[in-house]
Amino acid sequence: MTVETTQRTFDYVLVADKTDDDDDPKTRKRKAFIQVLEQKNIEVTTIENDDELFFGLRAPREIFEDYTYLLKVSDSCNWTGDEKSNIPQATRIRIVDLILRNTFISTGENLHELMEKGVFDTKFCLHERKEQKKLTEKWARWSALFKPQPFSDVKCYFGEKVGLYYLWLGWYTKMLIPAAALGIVVFLYGLAFFKSNPLIKEVCESNITMCPRCDKRCTVWKLSDTCTYAKVSHLFDNEGTVFFAMFMAIWATLFLELWKRTRAKYVSKWKVYDWCEEEEELILDIMSDPNCQAKQFRHSYFRSALVLILVTLMLMLIIGLAHALVVFRVVAAPLLSEGKSEFIKDHANIVALIMGAILHYFTIQIMTRVNRWVSFKLCQIEETNSFAATERSFTIKMFTFQFFTLFSSLFYVAFFLGRINGHPGNYVRIAGWRLEECHPSGCLTDLFIQMAIIMILKQTLNNIFEFTVPWLKKCVRRNSAKKLQRKCGHCYRKTSRDEDRLVELCDNCKLHDWLYNYHLAPTNAFSLFNEFLEMVVQFSFTTIFVAAFPLAPLLALINNIFEIRLDAIKMVHLERRVVPRKTNDIGVWTKVLEAIGVLAVIANGLVIGVSSDFIPRLVYRYHYGPCANGITNTHCMEGYINDTLSMAYMSHEAVKEDFGDWQMRLDNKINVTECSYRDYRTNEDYSLTSQFWLVLAVRFAFVILFEHVVVVCKFIAAWFVPDNPMKVKNDRLDDKLSRLKEELR
After folding, report:
1. Which DSSP symbol is given to 442?
2. What does 692-723 look like in DSSP terms, one character per residue?
3. SS3 of 677, please?
4. DSSP 338
5. Is the pLDDT assigned to residue 629 strictly greater than 60?
6. What is the pLDDT of residues 271-290, one digit of tens each?
7. 273 phi and psi, to 5 degrees?
8. Is 122 helix (H, G, I), strand (E, B) or coil?
């Protein structure tokens, strides 16, 4: 029964345009390719449909028997006795896919080149209706939203690579629960002292007149006008964010270490713990061509240097786009302050920041396609010796480009905004426009707004398009397949009465099944890469600047709960079946996640030490504040806002050149001769005060202390949690012993 089932399963389908002209070069090449496949004992079934030709491919059982034998005698030790009697369909597809990629016609062209020239339209492997139904019941439906994922079933159907992706995504989502819970606690901590905070009260009840925020178009303004902004700033810039940032840095380490244990448990269960990528590729090459030669490793210093130069130029272009976004905000703020709407005029800087974040999102969408194209071209220049090496190289390049595209603007907001803009009488300008300034309540809110907009837009809009586009295409193309199903209902009734006994379907029923798969959204070798990239970028948002956005883990958790089912439904019902691939790890993504964990420690230390007002508040409380001077009948932070402001006087010629008389008019009625701005400078010559240098020294001391403490905690956590559970080690030891005894017998 098993043999009969295997023989009647189609492993692959090729599609080409139907032409009656035998002299057409495309027709000749197509026939030549089919002929080469038949010489390799591949059974080809041809069915015509309107304007297309469908070629169903079945590989002989002998190929798979050779595969299981070589797998058994190899050093990988991932062979199981079950594979000898029952070759999984995932294994059949993987081997046939390699045979197709390594089949050449007399002109030296392979299938990829023939598809580029229009000889074949597409290729795809078939979904199995019975297995699809099982996965739908257990996994690929919205009603299973909070049910555990059937990782082993996913592995058997889509291969170990997809199975490990969902295993990693599920583990990442579980680990987000404590991070999200603590993020909510930190947010509620800021909310609890919302009304009683003296800094908020000082801003809201202030009578301080602030200097114009832009040239010519802006006038002086009251600090109390930004009371709402000060309240929002305190929600995300308080003492709780320091401890939360430390927690998230250690959390990232624990997440990776515990993931390694989870991975070890499942790959041991799936018998791929000792799987060797290089040896697997050699076995598959032999399956395609018994006389094949091993692809030799090569290295070219010229190609490496060329790739390095091109990568550098690409990164410079991406950083240049980040500068363009900065210029946009610099120009937009004064232009908006001239608008007719009073609300926009009063909040011109915030509106400009929001518009810049939205523009940044659209820039990300465009640059994602550019980055993908450039990464492919760079991989072609490198000429790697295997598909796995190409995939690793592409992953590193693509993630690097995406990281700079996403975070260049955020790094500017976090570490440069308001620190390089100068002071009255000596402002820094770009193309004649003054750089932005931070609010007197701090710069962290600007970073929060930027992150929140990009993260929310990226997660919601991307998921909507990712799901709806394949779904709409499937709905539009469904009619032709339904007509065929009505014609051949007797075949489906016959198989549905006895699912265990396969029968030979008529050509129309085969065509119906092929059309069903043909009309699904196409997939390729990098389809899973897109899902990984999306989640790793989210992981970056969740860890790198989490000090500015404690609710990021909560947003990530909510997104991932739906993302798992959305991706499952898409892969099972809306997309063609991906070619199952064997692996025992998530590959180079582990190194990427480790690098992000280290960068998260550095970035969060700098955000707290440099971007937030945590250090200036600390210095004021214990050195300059009322409590430090022995005054006990008031709050220790009383007068902090006023202490962070310096004065600019119109009597100074340089200041008078920056601010015209019209700009120094409050509410267009009252002329003022002095205004305040955020900085530690003297009133006479605008030189930096001793308080500035003390705060700067404490900032750097905190960053060094924070990073050393957290790094030590990360190392301790990594040492404390073993990569492999003891049960896995013992099971592998017993398994090796039993194999050796079996070989001896």
Report:
1. B
2. HHHHHHHHHHHHHHHHHHHHHHHHHHHHHS-S
3. strand
4. T
5. yes
6. 888 877 777 777 777 776 77
7. -60, -45
8. strand
What is the tens place of the pLDDT at every residue in 526-582?
Answer: 788 888 998 998 999 889 888 888 888 999 999 999 989 999 999 998 889 999 988
The model carries a pTM of: 0.86
Residue 171: burial class (beta carbons within 10 Å; 0-12, 13-18, 19+):
middle
Question: What distance in Å separates the CA atoms of residue 553 and residue 174, rounded to the nearest whole number?
Answer: 11
Nearest-angstrom CA–CA distance, 547 and 242: 7
Q: Assign 438 to helix, strand or coil.
A: coil
* pLDDT recorded at residue 340: 67
Which amino acid, residue 503? V
The CA distance from 738 to 733, in Å, is 9
Alpha helices in 198-300 (DSSP H): 198-204, 227-236, 239-269, 277-288
Beta bridge partners of 688: 681
422 in helix, strand or coil?
strand
Which pLDDT does position 476 carry in this prediction? 64
Q: Answer whether 58's CB lies under 8 Å from 43's CB.
A: yes
Cβ–Cβ < 8 Å for 446, 438:
yes
Q: Is the pLDDT score of 511 beyond 70?
A: yes
Q: For the range 223-229, what are the long-range contacts, defined as Cβ-Cβ under 8 Å and sequence gap of 24 or more?
A: 223/440, 223/641, 223/676, 225/346, 226/439, 226/440, 226/441, 227/200, 227/203, 229/350, 229/439, 229/441, 229/445
DSSP string, 445-488: HHHHHHHHHHHHHHHHHHHHHHHHHHHHHHHHHHHHHHHHHHHT
Query: Which pLDDT does position 505 carry in this prediction?
Result: 59
| Long-range pairs for 346-351: beta carbons < 8 A, 24 or more residues apart | 346/225, 348/213, 348/214, 348/218, 349/213, 349/436, 349/437, 349/439, 350/229, 350/449
Among 55, 57, 45, CA closest to 18: 55
Q: Which residues pair with 54 in a beta bridge?
A: 15, 47
What would the DSSP string read from start to end of 190-221?
HHHTTTT-HHHHHHHT--PEEPPSSSSS---E
pLDDT digits (tens, 9 = 90+) for 373-382: 999 999 888 8
Where does residue 174 rank: exposed (0-12), middle (13-18), buried (19+ CB within 10 A)? middle
The answer, yes or no, to whether residue 497 has pLDDT greater than 50, is no
Q: Residue 18 is encoded by which pair of tokens?
A: 């139907």
Decide if pLDDT at 739 tops 50.
yes
Q: Enter the tokens of residue 453.
A: 């907009």
Contact present, 226 and 691 (Cβ < 8 Å): no
CB 81 within 8 A of CB 88: no
Per-residue confidence (pLDDT) for residue 478, from 0 to 100: 59
Q: Is 705 left (phi over 0), alpha (psi -120 to 50) or beta?
A: alpha
pLDDT, tens digit, for every residue of 369-425? Answer: 999 999 999 988 888 777 778 888 899 999 999 999 988 888 888 888 878 888 888
DSSP tag of 522: P
The first and second tokens of residue 402, run together, are: 């995406």
Nearest to 246 by CA among 598, 547, 556: 547
pLDDT at site 154: 93
Domain ranges for the chain: 2-126, 151-612
DSSP 8-state class, residue 585:
S
